[in-house]
Design brief:
Distance between the termini: 16 Å
Largest sheet: 2 strands, antiparallel
Helix content: over 70%
Radius of gyration: 14 Å
Strand content: 5-15%
Order of helices and strands: HEHHHEH
Length: 115
Amino acid sequence: MDRIVQLLINAAALYVAVLLVPNLDFAFEPEGAWVKFLLVALIFGLVNTFLKPILRMLTLPITIMTLGLFLLILNALMLLLTDAISDELSLGLTVGDFFAALLGAIVISIVGFVL
């Protein structure tokens, strides 16, 4: 049950980021858009679950030197990786540039924290 709740929180945070960040878009098609959006949220959750802890451990010295600010860069990279995977699967998420990924990661972190 916790996994389903976490998936829905990821989906809600990603949806708010798509609404607020200018170069972060999702192709909402009339047929099956929400299923694709939930798949993108699932991919984002899987990337954060399996890959992010490894990268956090590898970048621990940089994170300590920047007093944790490097974690924002790491979150943006996870969003860019989700974009690359969703492009390969034709799910409709597009991240325009790194700045959009950074802003999107900040919004997703804030919304995920609030929810």
